[in-house]
TrEMBL record:
Record-annotated Peptidase M16 N-terminal domain positions: 99-235
Coiled-coil intervals, chain numbering: none
Keywords: Hydrolase, Metalloprotease, Protease, Signal, Zinc
Source domain of life: Bacteria
Protein name as annotated: Insulinase family protein
Lineage of source species: Bacteria, Pseudomonadati, Pseudomonadota, Alphaproteobacteria, Sphingomonadales
Domain (Peptidase M16 C-terminal): residue spans on this chain: 250-441, 740-919
Annotated InterPro entries: Metalloenz_LuxS/M16, Pept_M16_N, Peptidase_M16, Peptidase_M16_C
Length: 1009
């Protein structure tokens, strides 16, 4: 819920951004931005002058969501029903300030389709955006951009097997923009055009989306559904549909599906935002109240139940569900993987407190098994990873999944070992200590939302309610969830957990899919036999009763505590900078308006640019193994145990010019979180098992990149963008094989010992307590050598212009390809203003590219353009346009992108075109600025480069103050002919993509204009 202090804090940050920059040298001729006084800003959306706030008409005593349930009502939500049958829910939420999140949920997805309608639910999602009562054909994107919403982020839709949801997060909402938004969305849902011309426009786009999502991963997903849900509709109902059914679609057949399911009595409107709930309700009633349905609602087709195998129970004594269908699928480029599913019929439940207590017990049972499986994997077992997860799938089955990634070729041993751990869990109860450990973890998981309730975004609250409706359950406030959980703790006894464990593996049938890289590794019958063979319970991974306790009090000190030598204001909001004698600098920003949340970031060393190219493989392995290698006296298991019942993290990343550790924690855990990070730098440990596991994971993953054009781009694009610098390459299996534990330790020991060190702490914490903890941790570190002063590594250089494309190949479907065209730009903090202006230019480029190759030509589903400007480097930035297309359209894409670039150079954008880009950018920045994270992200590296402090002051100005002529000048500076380089990813065995015919080129040229 929004509080006054939160609103004032957010408005103060916004006012700071809205201040006019002090005549920056790079923009002395720009118009000055207006200053804002936070005291004059309205608290949420207000009705027009003279118009009273309407009276809420919802049912507060018998809300429709909770009928038949004893779950406490979340009083922040207000539930209503209209005479036409449409249900709605509204609530006030001011995070981020000024935003209103709208969800229109249609209770129909791909499982509602007949055989001849496969793909219609998803096709309709597209066609509703195409043309409707208040939106002309192809104008939806522009209409929502004018309201400040970004297409694909703020404006979106999703079709699943059971629902279709239209989503809009309206920034900077006003009474007028809300009224217009509800008008547009109501027209889309209640009165779409659905003409033959619209179908002709959208069908190629949907087919392009189908092509983009094809390949090995799609084949595995299809095989999984066909195997696991055999005999049910879900086995043959992917939301994307089939090419045959989509090609056969007509405007009349699509309209028939629409009229059957798009009705007010099958739709729910959910709204959460910064406005009075009665005001939000009034728009729902105004724009959806006149919608009328014809005839009764069609009966929902039966989704079917899991089918038991014939021939009686063929399961083992301990695995209670009989083993049915098993299948082996050969996919040479995918890692070996075994998926097992134990299925039970799905039935709508009474969502009451006892039901949820059962779910909590299920969670504990699963967590205990998963911890044991992870313990086995860390010890160097026969499997890289394994996990158990229970899920209610598409209102079709209640399923317990077991996933196994074998190590090496002995898949049978891996499956045996996983089954043995599960068999042990089903044989005898867990210890109370094991239960208490998982209960402590769940307690934190339920407590954090209580502490952070005031900062939960409205969009998440709206999505949570959508998900609850989809699974036919309720929602509860965080306080009630925590209370119910804590009152239920006496129920979490060993025998009860054992009972729930056994239920997880009982049911109608158990089925399995084994994806292997080589034909002949296994047969369907061998997989079946491996599931029914008798198994001996393995208790070796249980928590030992005599396990030595781990405590922060017993860990070695980092060094002698040292007080900071300076504590100075930065001049930016209330952020202060501490400096210690060892050179460590700390930025502190206590913010009580973000209760229960503290973020810690530690940047150290020189990042990628400080690493020798010969050590490039260790960069990738560090992402897998550096944290797991432990610290001080703590191995990975110890780190897990010492953080039990605490909110602590250990995320690690590699940037161009620094390495970074990051965690979100709580005020009471901050001191220990700081110790963990400081000890990682000064007291590293080098366990070999995490390194070996990292090597195995990296080798397994490598082949997966070749399964699709997008995979190849993920693997190789950074390498080519950085002039074939091996430090940006994904190491090959051969390179991984050459890596040694000694080499890993040598490279990362050096990196961990180097400076500079910059710490950021922001959120809800006590400053004096934080400084005291810093004195014992980062203040106590040994002085460090600057990574760049001793680095022998070569500089990072950008790719050179070349009109001859780099040609790479993938092993996926023959109708898949990708095309990239990239223009080098620049880098460095002195160019931040220009980098932000380039973001405007790339958004203009994206809009034109989307209109040309998706909306007009239909050759790509999601083309996009992005700008990368490395603030820490003086070069290496780029503007890059990317699309996944069919092979024959690669050159069409190149031609279209070049023509758009040249047109941006020749002709400045229109004022309307520029406004449709700037307004969404303005809203993105102002929404982000309501969070401390936004400012601290901008300040990463500022302790070494103070320019970043001043650049924060102009961020909104830089993203929103420009002219068509300045965009034209930027385009001329960077997008000129001969400045770019190209890359194309083609199916294996195909040479460079052929040039298109004259007709296709002419069409591309026309579309680009």
């Amino acid at each position: 819920m929004t509080t006054i202090s939160r609103a004032v804090s957010s408005l103060a940050c916004l006012a700071f951004l809205l201040q006019a920059p002090a005549t920056p040298a790079f923009a002395q001729d720009d118009a000055q931005a207006s200053a804002a006084d936070p005291g004059t800003q309205p608290a949420g959306v207000q009705p027009p002058a003279g118009v009273p706030v309407p009276v809420l008409q919802t049912n507060e005593t018998d809300p429709w969501l909770y009928r038949g349930s004893d779950i406490p009502h979340d009083k922040a939500w207000h539930f209503g029903e209209m005479p036409n049958g449409l249900k709605y829910a509204v609530r006030k939420n001011g995070v981020p300030p000024g935003q209103v999140s709208i969800r229109v949920r249609v209770d129909a997805g791909s499982l509602n389709e007949s055989d001849g309608e496969r793909g219609y639910a998803h096709l309709l999602e597209h066609m509703l955006f195409r043309e409707s009562k208040y939106i002309k054909s192809g104008q939806a994107i522009a209409a929502f951009q004018r309201l400040g919403a970004t297409f694909g982020t703020d404006t979106n839709a999703v079709t699943s097997t059971t629902q279709t949801v239209f989503k809009l997060d309206l920034p900077n909402a006003t009474a007028a923009s809300l009224d217009e938004t509800f008008k547009l969305m109501s027209g889309m849902v209640t009165a779409p055009t659905l003409s033959a011309a619209d179908l002709k426009q959208d069908l190629p786009i949907v087919l392009a989306e189908m092509r983009e999502h094809g390949g090995a991963a799609k084949r595995v997903q299809d095989a999984l559904q066909e195997t696991f849900y055999k005999g049910q509709r879900l086995a043959v109902r992917q939301p994307i549909g089939t090419a045959a059914s989509l090609h056969a679609a007509t405007d009349k057949s699509v309209q028939a599906f629409y009229h059957r399911w798009y009705r007010p009595d099958n739709v729910t409107v959910i709204v959460a935002g910064d406005a009075d709930p009665a005001m939000l309700e009034s728009y729902v009633r105004k724009w959806f109240g006149g919608w009328r349905a014809e005839g009764p609602l069609a009966p929902v087709p039966s989704f079917g139940d899991p089918v038991a195998p014939t021939g009686g129970n063929t399961g083992s004594a301990r695995e209670l569900a009989p083993v049915g269908e098993t299948r082996v699928l050969v996919e040479p480029d995918l890692p070996p993987s075994i998926m097992i599913a134990t299925l039970r019929p799905w039935r709508q439940v009474i969502d009451n407190i006892p039901y949820n207590q059962g779910l909590m017990t299920d969670q504990i049972a699963q967590a205990i098994i998963n911890r044991r499986l992870e313990t086995r994997a860390r010890a160097g077992g026969s499997f890289l990873s394994a996990a158990v997860n229970e899920d209610k799938v598409s209102r079709s089955a209640d399923v317990t999944f077991v996933s196994v990634t074998p190590l090496g070729e002995d898949w049978d041993k891996a499956l045996h070992d996983v089954r043995a751990v599960i068999a042990d869990a089903m044989t005898r109860p867990p210890s109370q200590a094991e239960i208490d450990r998982e209960v402590a973890e769940l307690d934190v998981a339920f407590q954090v939302p209580v502490e952070q309730e005031r900062i939960l975004p409205g969009a998440k609250l709206a999505d949570d309610l959508v998900n609850a409706l989809d699974i036919r359950e309720t929602v509860a406030g965080p306080q009630d969830v925590l209370r119910i959980f804590r009152e239920s703790k006496p129920l979490f006894a060993p025998e009860k957990v054992l009972e729930h464990t056994r239920k997880l593996f009982s049911g109608t049938v158990t089925r399995a899919l084994f994806t292997t890289q080589k034909a002949g590794d296994a047969t369907d019958a061998q997989l079946h036999q491996a599931l029914v063979d008798p198994i001996k319970a393995d208790a070796s991974a249980r928590l030992a009763a005599t396990e030595k306790p781990v405590s922060f009090d017993t860990l070695p000190a980092i060094g002698a505590p040292q007080k900071p030598v300076s504590d100075l204001p930065t001049g930016l909001l209330d952020i202060e900078e501490l400096t210690f004698a060892n050179g460590v600098k700390v930025m502190l920003w206590p913010v009580t308006e973000e209760p229960g949340r503290v973020v810690v970031k530690v940047r150290f060393g020189g990042g990628t640019r400080s690493v020798e190219p010969a050590d490039a493989a260790y960069l990738a392995l560090g992402n897998y193994a550096l944290v797991g290698s432990g610290e001080a006296t703590l191995g990975m298991d110890d780190l897990d145990r010492i953080s039990t019942g605490r909110k602590m993290g250990f995320d690690f990343s590699v940037d161009d010019a620094a390495f970074q550790l990051q965690a979100e924690t709580r005020p009471q855990d901050l001191a220990d979180q700081l110790y963990l990070f400081a000890a990682k730098l000064d007291l590293p440990r080098w366990d070999v098992n995490p390194f070996r596991r990292a090597k195995a994971a990296a080798k397994i993953q490598y082949d997966t990149y070749a399964t699709s054009p997008q995979g190849i781009l993920s693997r190789d694009l950074p390498y080519y963008q950085h002039g074939k610098d091996p430090r940006y390459a994904t190491p090959t299996p051969a390179e991984i094989d050459k890596a040694t534990p000694e080499g890993f330790k040598k490279m990362w020991s050096k990196a961990l010992s180097e400076g500079p060190v910059e710490v950021q702490i922001y959120g809800d914490f006590d400053k004096a307590a934080a400084i005291s903890a810093l004195e014992k941790t980062f203040g106590a570190l040994k002085p460090r050598t600057d990574a760049l002063s001793t680095a022998k590594a070569p500089p990072i250089v950008p790719a050179k212009a070349d009109t001859t494309p780099v040609v790479l190949h993938h092993h996926g479907d023959p109708d898949q390809a990708a095309a990239v065209i990239s223009w080098p730009t620049g880098g460095g903090s002195l160019g931040i203003r220009e980098s932000r202006q380039l973001e405007i230019l790339t958004q203009l480029f994206t809009n034109r590219l989307l209109d040309a190759v998706r909306e007009k030509l239909g050759v790509a589903y999601s083309p996009y353009v992005f700008s990368d400007w490395p603030v820490d480097l003086q070069a290496g930035g780029s503007i890059t346009a990317v699309a996944q297309v069919d092979p024959k359209s690669v050159d069409v894409f190149f031609q279209t992108a070049e023509e758009i670039a040249q047109d941006l150079i020749t002709n400045p954008p229109s004022a309307d075109e520029l406004d449709r880009v700037i307004e969404p950018l303005r809203q993105q920045v102002t929404r982000a600025a309501s969070s401390t994270a936004f400012f601290m992200n901008q300040l990463e590296g500022a302790s070494r480069d103070p320019v970043r402090f001043s650049s924060v002051r102009t961020v909104l100005y830089d993203y929103t103050q420009t002219t068509p002529e300045k965009m034209q000048a930027l385009a001329a500076k960077y997008l000129g002919q001969g400045n770019s380089w190209r890359l194309e990813v083609l199916p294996e065995g195909e040479a460079m993509a052929p040039a298109p015919g004259a007709g296709a080129m002419a069409a591309a040229k026309a579309a680009a204009k």
